[in-house]
Amino acid sequence: MRRLFIILSISLFINSYKLHSQAIYPVDKWMEYVEDLAEETEDTERIENLYADLSYLSEHPFELNTVTEEQLKRLPFLSDRQIARILSYRERYGKILTVYELKNIEELDYQTISLLFPFVYIGDISVEKRAFTVKNMLKYGRNELQIRYDRCFQQKKGYRAYPDSVLQQYPNRKYRGEPFYHSLRYSYTFDDRLQAGFVAEKDAGEPFWNAYYKGYDFYSAHFFLKDMGWLKSLAIGDYKMSFGQGLVVSNDFSPSRTALVTQAERRINGFRRHYSTNEQDFFRGMAGTVAIRNVDVNLFCSYRKLDAGVDSFAFTSLKTDGLHRLRRDWEKRRTIPLLVYGGNIRYAMPDFHIGLTALSYSFGKYRMEPDLKPYNLFYFRGSNNINIGVDYMWKNNRVKLFGETALSKNGAVATLNALALTPTSYISFLALYRYYDRRYQALFGNAFAQGSTVQNEQGLYMGLRLTPVAYWRFSFYADLFRFPWLKYGIDVPSTGQEYMAQVDYTPHERFTAYLRYKYRKKAENYTGSDRPLVAITPYRQHRLRFQQVYNISSWVLKSSWDGVLVDRAFRPASKGMMLSQHIGWRPATVPFQWNGYVGWFHTDDYGSRISSYEKNILYAFNMPSFYGHGIRVALTFRLDLWKSLSLSMKIAHTSYFDRDLIGTDTEEIASSRKTDLYALLRWKF
């Protein structure tokens, strides 16, 4: 272990090596962007969706001479000013001959170009759209089939054999299905205007082909048309939607507190296909957009069934994990009908837009009735609700204003408003204020917030990004917030603060490094042997991260160090650290690439856990958390068997030095080691 520590430390702090051959840009820079987002949220489903969407776009990049403003807005790391400069450069100088011309655009620094490179290319310009004929669809349509299989090699408690007498008394001790994950995804696309496909999935532990059930646990299908003249989009089957800043409805990941400190606006409005294994965050039915000059009219209707435990047509909460492994899971499976309908009308000009969104949802004869607690006094109760919101945006070359104000059926208000300033290409500033009434209720709301819901929160966020000299970038943000009412785990109204400072250094194309510090202060309940009554105490968390990346010919070396310190009243401080090293080899002439990862971690407890991103198979995001003392090793490779057939595999192993059991309840493993296999076979035809 001492030897491993020395090797990682040497790799981490050596920074004098330089090469002077042709520039190689790190193709995985955008993955670090998603990693940064994942550190600040527990919304793993939407993070995985964002990662899958960006993975798809990196596999199907935009042609730089024909890419549109709407397409570039799908890349969340690009600002409006940067998008405008890319398009104006093309208009002024004509056809872009190489992607390296992007370096001539003043607003694009090296970090942004590194993020953008995997999503653009230079190719043949085709202005005419192909006609929708059977011949063209057969000739030019693109098919893709993905088959995925995951498995843990160690046996978990839920898969053990139990006597029938035990299972009759304790039926939820044993999973009903097989110990592997499996999914099947197929898609067809034509000229980027027609998308159709389906998804089938079973989670590990869910029955696939046995006495309990035959077939996949989850099925999804979609048919999506867009850019058909006045019919801007048409969705049949499963789809996603987002409007405004997410106070009424959004299926997208909520941009929040990241190193891209001045980009917190939602820019994507409208409908998109649902082509993921997320079993909860989508709509099922029909939706469409009609474009009449500068006005878009959006209408939608959805009906599907949700999971919940029902007692006399009442349920306390919705089950949202999508798992159906135990008998109690099957008793809650698809019990609650949900009908959603509404619309949005949006008037948009290049520098201004305003929109109105209205949405109604109903559980039919069922009622949501959470068990009454002081903290959930203002949660939604009933069988139906309505949300209405108005969003806006106005901008010029240096100033941008955007926001949304929404109402729920009970008259409560939620509002978010922001001011973005970009006086020069090397300075940007954002101030964002949000007020979410404690009584505001929006089942599909998903907006900028410290909490997981658009409710019971007020806050002022300020972000500043500076690029004062070559090679250096400085990013800062401060978020001051308060919760006017009680929250789960906090029995009084409370306040909090969060700060971040980051320095990025990029001396040349082959080396990048950054140092980041984050501080968070919140309140929490405390009950100890010395305090029989609940006390409200401060919770302070300090996080420090250093990372450097080398690109040497076809090799990528990434070294990281993470440290965390958690300070709680009446308890000893909790601390932890992690050292990790990533090595990747991606030759240009061989249809094979591999990535290796090794990480050593040592934390005091779960409160000081550390998350670390590691490469996974195609379209899959993986950023596990670790606590205690141990080592993590992972090896990922991708082999292109033929031009249209590729195989991605990963094997990951974790060894703990401080325990003999891993996990809890039915996920418990009676070992100090855990090994997982992930495999994906993709066929494009």
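(the above was protein one; protein two follows)
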Amino acid sequence: MMRSLFSGVSGLKTHQTRMDVIGNNIANVNTTAYKSQNMVFSDLLYQTTQAASGANAATGRGGINARQIGLGAKTAAINTAITRQGSAQSTNNPWDVMISGESFFIVNSGSQNFFTRDGAFTIDGAGNLVMASTGYRVMGWQVDEETGDIRSDVVSALQVMNRDNLTAPPESTTMGYASGILDKNDTQVHSKAGKVMTLTFFDKLGYQYTALMSVHAMSQDGNYYVQLDDIINEDGISLKTYYNVNDINQIANFGGEQAPITETKVYALPNDGSVTYNPANGTTPASFTVSYNFDEILSGFSGNPMMSLAGDTVKVTQINGGALPTAATQYDAETTVTVQGDVTLTKDVLEREYGLAYDEDQGQYYYRPKDADGNYTSDTPIALGPTTLTNPPQAASETGWAAVLSQLGGSVALATDANGPLITVDEKGAATISFTANFDTTKTSVFTPAQSGGGSFGVTLEDRDDNRQEILEKVYGLHGTDNISYSINFITPDGHASITSSESYSGNRLVFDTETGNFEYIGSPEQNAASLTFSASATDLTGSNVDLSHFTDISIDFSSVMNINNGKVSTVGLDSGDGSSNNLGSGRKHGELIGIEVGQDGKIRASYDNGMTKLLGQIAVAKFANPAGLAKAGNNLYSTTMNSGDFDGIGIDITSDGEGSMESGVLEMSNVDLAGEFTEMITTQRGFQANSRIITTSDSMLEELVNLKR
């Protein structure tokens, strides 16, 4: 009977222990990352009153089981649901971090490492990342100063807000790249200014500059050159002005002056018959007969506004006061040759360019005079008078024509008769004005009128040294430029000329494959990049030394540029950096810290207002063979035991197994299941109540036993 009493007592004790576990679970229902526990019962010792016996074949008796009386229950184990993930609770605090998976944060008390799932962290006064509840420092890996990457070593405290991390130092630009399309038919590429590109870069001190560069077409197809034009600072001031130097190449250069590119080719005469070659014959020198337009032989023609407006209405009617010769007639270069002719200005030109108004019913032009400031001096139009006028005008009515006639200038003059200038207006309002002009005898040697009735003049150019520039332009269509010159080596009897071109340039030669349009090289063959090179110092106009050591050379890659058709529009441009996802070498100004974030891999990165991000460290985690074997140390901490497995002191990257990760701004909630806990609390209460009945019932039986003596 005493055994039942002790069994009841053991039952009370074990159920009380279970109630303690349940109470602890419910108490921690809101504890961050708390892992619930459950208790396992087992029976206690047994008293054997009769041992078991086996069957006896000799006597024929069977075996009997042992007779054992149990002595109650005991606590077999208290298990922790440590691998069951708690729900996520958003806090929007960037220092709150939740672990997904079976890993643990590593924290240090100053003398010992502990492990926790509680990611409620904060920054202490020394800039250390610590547990908000205990101040224990969070452990992880530091950044290797040489590589800039994480060094997986023995874990150490993470200090993320030290002085070095509050700012990002400036960095000079070291790399740049060109991209886009260079269309050979783009007029900008063939202009004197070229296709302008800009490159923004930083020096070592974080100051920003803009390099102005340009692309120019060369005479050979697929060949261009890129040159440095200027560099301006953040205030838009050229460094030539800022440092008081003559040439930007004293500060920086992009290839500099290059040796001229020479090429010798054979050119034939035009196949349209416009040029005739006359080989030398005895005492007659070799010459070319070429058709010249009026703007090439009449002095002052090309710069004369009226001649330009007249266009192809210019007609020559007389030479040296006589009729046009019917046969070719030579005029020596030293002889003054005067031509007379007419230009016709249409009604549209007179109305648009000279402010005249034509009355078709009256066959009369009208004019509203203006003062020097362009304001009308009268509201009443003035009739222009007869069609043949005096010069200068003899009446106020002729004032309007004077405005027209004043457009003639230079050696182009009005033709007159006894009544003055010759102007005839037809029924459509077109005014024909007669003029006289002189040949520009300095341009050619001998002139012969063309057989086309005076529409143009045939010019004979002798093959002399002083005529060869004109022969190059007029016969072979080769016009020299600022950087291209031509020279004739010799001319064959059939008019073919051996001509050498010399093309000079400053900068780097840019070459493309003419079949594919793909980039070939810049500067020299097999070279993808060219350097914008800065001088270490320069001498200004006062003779003082200028320190330029704060600049860094920039390597600019052109391999992405294409030389293909793009509708006569080039899109080629320059950017700093190497063009990769990280855009290395782009440079930056001085930066101030604007934010810190923790990535899914536990890496802590700082963001700065200059666009830079900096790796500050990485939160390492620990993983155990038997995490349930960890011992709870209070304050949401765990410590290792002989049954959990040891910590190697280094830890692991949480993403190394592909299953775990960290999430910033979120905390892991307790994994206590209240419904389950309340159910277990009911069964525990009933078990405790039943065990108490064992004691009271046994007590009643003992009382009856005592009463037998009475």
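Reviewer note on protein two: The CA atoms of residues 123 and 129 lie 5 Å apart.
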